[in-house]
Amino acid sequence: MTDRLTLYRATDDDIIVGCASFALSREAAEAYLRNPGYGGRSLWRAEVEIDPETLLDLVAVDDPIATIMQTTGLPHPGAIGADEWVPRIADRLADVGIEWVRVAESYPTNTVTYIFVGSDDPEMEPVE
Question: What domain count does the chain have?
Answer without folding.
Answer: 1
